[in-house]
Structure formats: C-alpha cells, structure tokens
Amino acid sequence: MANILVTGGAGFLGSVIVPELLKAGHKVTVLDNFMYQQNSLCECCADENFEIVRGDCRDRELLKKLVEGKDYIFPLAALVGAPLCDRDIIASETVNRDAIKTLVEVVEKEQRIVIPITNSGYGVGEKGKYCTEETPLRPISLYGRVKVEAEQAAFKHENTVSLRLATVFGASPRMRIDLLVNDFVHRAIVDRTVVIFEGHFKRNYVHIRDVARAFMHVMDNFADMKGEAYNVGLTEANMSKLELCAKIKEHLPNFMYLEAPLGEDPDKRDYIVSNDKIEATGFKPVHTLDMGIEELKKAFTILNNSKYSNV
Q: Can you give the residue range of the structural domain that contains 299?
C-alpha cells in the first residue's frame, strides 16, 4: 500500500484515477480548490483511506504539510487547454508551472513524483514523422509552453516520471465537453453537425481510463522508469480531425460535418506520436476510440448542457 497525494484530484483525470487508487488499497489525500463546484469524489468519502483537503496547490506551507509521509505525489492540478490558459495567463503560469517548482522544493529526495504533461508540447511535427520522447519540444500555445516548463522543473527532482498525455477522451464524474473527441461526439448528438477548420491537422488520443492505468503502471515499475518522459497515447488513434469525424459518423450516422475553406483553428498543433517507449515497458492501452465513442453516447444522454465545459 502506498501513501499518495493527488493535487487537483477532483478534476477530470483525478475523478477517475483517485477511485482506482483507493480500489487498489492505496491511501489517498486529495488537494483541490473545487473551482467547478464539482462533487465527483463524494463516492470516495466512505473509504477510510481517503482524505480530502480544500486548498490551493500554490500554497507552499500547505503543500509542505501535505507531502509529509507521502510515497508518491501526482500533481494533476492545472488549468488545462489552450483557450482556458489564454483566458487567465497569470493563473496558467502559477498553477501549471510555478506550483510544480514549489513542489520540487518541498519534497524529500526519496519521494516519487508522477506528473502528467501534454504532448501538445511537440507543437507542429514533421509530415509523416512520428514524435518520440527525443523530439525537440516546440510548444505553440501558452498551455503547451507552461506544461513543458513544468516538466523541466519536475525533472530537477530525480525521482520523477513524466507522462506526456495525448488528447484525453471518455467520461469522468467531473466531465469535460471541451476535449476534442468529447466535443465532437457531443456536437454529433446535440447539434448533429460541426464545421471543421484545418481538418488535416493530426494529433493523438487516449482514453481517460488508460491514463489511470498508466499511472498505476508507473507505480508498479517506478525503479525502471524514473527520470524519463513517456508518451501515453493510443497508437492507432493518430488521426486528423476529418478522420475523427468519419469515425464518429460510423457510430452516429446522422452526424454531418464539413470543412470550412476559410478560417483557422486557434489550436495549431499538428503531429503524430510514437508510444513505443512506454509500450516497451509493458503498458498498452486497452480502450479503443470506438469504445470511447459508445461510452460518450451514453454520457451525453445524461449530460446535455455546457456547465461541463471548461471554456
């Protein structure tokens, strides 16, 4: 049994990861400011191994107190996505980057950090060439930049593993509709149509439950994986926005999409990603894009309003 601190543990990722950690018998403390008024961890409150603290991940004294005695720290607290970061530049820098610098200053040498980073740090890749962990990081958004800087800060602590996550999809108790797969499926159900800008732009995707599995995998293999970054994505889901829409249409035949001849996508990233490095350690995603779309169809039968969108 490990003793784990999860900052931002009531967010989109944490609301799936924390119950899995508790189910595995770990002791989990969550620090969250509940900025979305979410109640996604209520089911965990009956578990004696669960502790919850309402507070700010930038609070040095609070962080110093909470890391005491912890084996692992999962710093999930972040303003996620380019639009949200552009809306609050100061918070995106202080939460996404500076809080990691503070964390590194207050942890003990033997404590282990597993940090999620976006693979949007690759920016624009070379056509037909996979981005590996050795590919230079050239973020083109504020969000990408501060997350890359957070990774650099985290690696100043030698007991660190960075997971460079593909665009996450799937349902969570703290739902997000603004993520690309989730967004397009939601539009396919609610509006039955979407207009695509720069539909040839590619990126990689991964199911939220495979992200949770990746964190558990790192814990099981930390000694062999420490000090390294790993791409985490679904290899068969390196696809363009138009290819994604075609896949969604297989599940929702009434969905109509068209590419606008004019206009630009504010999120300019365009790349394909190799996940060979983490797969070589024995990890492989088990949730397909088809499974995720079917899951989201059910989720959006329940949720049909924009309060679950970060932007």
A: 3-238+250-308
